[in-house]
Specification:
Blueprint lengths: L2 H12 L6 H10 L9 H7 L6 H6 L7 H13 L4 H22 L10 E2 L9 E2 L10 H21 L9 H15 L2 H12 L1
Antiparallel strand pairs: 1-2
């Protein structure tokens, strides 16, 4: 799946529990960070290799295994307030990333990018699905669209978006623009409270 799709899925998972901004960032970033193992494509492009050796050798290997998932969970546990909840969400987000790649990451050449889940302990178990669809197939666009709608809804309703990971000011401007366009949910809540008293 596309990194934007992974990010939106991670963000949706992060908002299933009441955790703080940093914890939401851990869960969201976990949804996309395994794909750092594909960064070798930049080196392959810069060096003009005819065959993308680093990308093919390390993508879906370094960041797509149980050890990497455990390290992410331990990091979240160490640097969170709600340690157990955040670590569990990170674990879930990581595995949803793997599931998304197994379902929808087939290359144009038909290669399925198996996931060596048990690395570095064992290379025996390669996760793959025979029904995997292409990276540019309609199901990936549908997942991106649905998780995008979820992100907009959470931003409008709760006042938080993935932008909060980079800038609270930018997040607030985005939320304000949404609420100006689609109505301010906080004002409706305040009016209901006032009516009760």
């Amino acid at each position: 799946m596309n990194p934007v799709t992974h990010l939106l899925i991670g963000w949706s998972i992060a908002n299933t529990c009441n955790i703080n901004r940093r914890e939401r960032a851990f869960v969201t970033i976990t949804g996309v960070i395994p794909d750092l193992d594909g960064a070798g494509i930049i080196w392959d492009f810069v060096t003009s290799d005819k065959y993308p050796s680093l990308y093919v050798k390390y993508h879906h290997v370094l960041g797509h295994n149980i050890l990497f998932g455990i390290l992410l969970c331990l990091s979240a546990f160490c640097f969170s307030r709600r340690r157990a909840v955040t670590a569990l969400l990170v674990f879930f987000s990581f595995h949803i990333h793997l599931l998304g790649d197994m379902a929808g990451s087939m290359g144009p050449d038909g290669y399925q990018w198996p996931i060596p889940y048990l690395l570095p302990f064992s290379n025996a178990w390669q996760l793959a699905w025979s029904g995997q669809w292409g990276l540019n197939a309609w199901p990936n666009f549908a997942v991106t669209f649905i998780t995008g709608l979820i992100m907009f809804y959470i931003a409008w309703k709760r006042g938080i978006s993935p932008l909060e990971m980079f800038s609270v000011k930018t997040n607030n401007a985005f939320v304000l623009a949404l609420r100006n366009r689609f109505g301010d949910t906080t004002k409706k809540g305040e009016n209901k409270k006032k009516e009760k008293f």
